[in-house]
Each structure stands twice: as structure tokens, then as C-alpha cells.
Amino acid sequence: MTTKLAIVGSGNIGTDLLIKCLHGYPRLQPVALVGIDPESDGLARARGLGVATTDKGVAGLIAMPEFDGVDIVLDATSAKAHIANAAALEPYGKQLLDLTPAAIGPYVVPVINLDQHLGAKNLNMVTCGGQATIPIVHAISRITSVPYAEIVASIASRSAGPGTRANVDEFTETTSKAIEQVGGARRGKAVIILNPAEPPMLMRDTVMAIVEEPRRDEIVASIEQMVAEVARYVPGYRLKQDVQFSPIPAEEPLRTLIDAAPRDRWKVSVFLEVEGAAHYLPAYAGNLDIMTSAALEVANRLAEGTDKMSGVA
After folding, report:
1. What are the extents of the domains in the chain?
2. Residue stretches of the annotated binding site for NAD(+)
3. pLDDT tens digits, residue range 161-183?
4. Looking at domain 128-282, does it have CATH number 3.30.360.10?
């Protein structure tokens, strides 16, 4: 039994979703790719692969004969567009996976909290930086308390399309909140850098977490285990170098950062690299690859749950 998908957004992310889905997810069947530009490469590729298309947006999707059979809609547009798309689709009871920072539904990072949100009708995939770094914050916070965590996502400028550029403010806000709500930090901050270097660099992510106990061996083991879990569905996800620990002497300025009394603490620094699988996007676009891979991991889990309810092995 297959679960039928519609993908909204015929740009880089939507097209990568389509290609990945057709070549590595037998439970998932993409039946429609939706765009607004009739000349987009994504729509042309979809038609060449035998997948139905529309350039009339979500209204066009709803009018398609394939729509009735769709189980899951993946939205790879923009935060503003997703708000309108979700409202248009709400009467039809479809499961929505939101790859924008709109965050109408709960934040989901597959290795952390997918099980508790399987029944939600709109699942938010946070951001590329969130999918890369929040697992690390969580890996640290399950060992010791994290009063503050800050992440920096550095991506190749050439991998940042119009949707990414339009959503920079939403990226920082959504990722910061998810660092707290999903990662477990008491306070979170997120920064994104569009690096114009040529040739384009791979996605690099830095996680800086302040901790109250220097439980080095346990923290490192927890991080390494988490990296392996994420790499199961994002093979290019890896540690760039060893985890670093630095003492932070008790200082008054730290109070404004973490709102706590002065005391000795430690900074844990984690350096990550994400190489894309190059299914449709170039290998340097790990920021896009981790989003599509995480979303399809969620869709596959939802399909497995449907199969179990239907008695399909």
C-alpha cells in the first residue's frame, strides 16, 4: 500500500522532494507537483517523470482529479504562502507537512519528537538550521541543563533561493523557539549566514551551548549517538571536528545572557557539516537536502502508521 503525496512548490526544495521520493521511498507515491510558474524546471521534470502538475497553485491542486486520493501535502513554498495554503486546504482534512518557517503546527525534528506529534494535521519541519542543530542541543540537554544555546547556520549563497531569502526573519524566530521547545535549552538564539564563497561551500553549522556540569564523556557520547541517528536519513550529516569544552568563569555579564546568578559554567562547541546527496540539488546544498530528507522521513513514518492501521505489513 502506498501513501499518495502532493508537493506544493516547484522550486529547488519541491523538485528535490519529488526526485528523492521517486527513487528511495517505495511507501510514498508523489502524484502531483504544484507551482505558479508554468516555465519552472520542476514542473517540466515532473511531467517528464509522469507526475501530474499544475501551475495554478493550491487552487489548481484542489481542482485536479488526483487531489481526492492525496493523503499528505508537503508545502515547500514560503512562510507567508503556507499560511494561505493551509487555510485553503483545511476543509479537506489532508495531512500537511510544512517545510517553511510558518510554524502553524508543532515543531518536528524526526529523531527527537516525531512520535508525540503523529496525529497533528499540520507538522512544521522548523528550518534547515533547526534540523541540523536542534538534535545536538537536545543531545546535550538530555545529559545536563542548558541555560543557553546559540546556533549559526552557514550556507552557500547559491543554495539560497527566493523562498529562503524571503524567510530570513522567520528563520531566526522559528529556529530560536524550536531550540527551546524541542532542543531543551532554556533560551535559544539562531543566526543564518549566506556565504558567497566560490566555489560554493558545504553547509556548516556551529552549536554553542552553555552547560552547568562538565560531564564531558557523557555529553560527547550523547552527541555522537545523535549524529549517527540523523545520518541514518541524512547520510552527509557529520561532525566536522571533535567536540570542544571551554570553562566560563563566573562573570556578571553572563547574567544578561542566561538570566541566572553568576557561577562557573562551561561552553560546549559542536561543529557540523552537511553534504547533500545530490539527487537534484548540488552536493553543497546540504541545507536544502536536510530539509527534504527530514520531511520524507516524517512522511514515511506517517505512511508506516497508516499501513499498520490498515493491517498491511
Report:
1. 3-125+289-311, 128-282
2. 10-13, 159-167, 287
3. 887 888 899 999 999 999 999 99
4. yes
- Distance, in Å, from the CA atom of 144 to the CA atom of 211, rounded to the nearest integer, reads 7
Are 155 and 130 contacting, i.e. CB atoms less than 8 angstroms apart? no
Q: What is the DSSP letter of 107?
A: B
**Annotated binding-site ranges:** 10-13, 159-167, 287
For the chain, give the number of residues: 313
Q: Is the pTM of this model over 0.85?
A: yes
Q: Which residue from 154, 55, 33, 167 is spatially nearest to 100, judged by alpha carbons?
A: 167
Instruction: Scan for cell 528511495, then name that residue.
Output: 24
According to DSSP, the β-strands at 203-211 and 122-124 are: unpaired
Catalytic, 21? Answer no
Is residue 194 pLDDT above 80, yes or no?
A: yes
- Which entry of 128, 254, 272, 302 is annotated as an active-site residue? 128
Q: Closest by alpha carbon to 186, among 125, 144, 223?
A: 144
| Locus of grid cell 545536538 | 136
Q: Give per-residue pLDDT as tens, 113-154.
A: 999 999 999 999 999 999 999 999 999 999 999 999 999 999
Paired sense of beta strands 148-156 and 203-211, if any: antiparallel
Task: Please tell us whether the domain made up of 3-125+289-311 is placed in CATH 3.30.930.10.
Answer: no
Contact 56, 68 (CB under 8 A): no
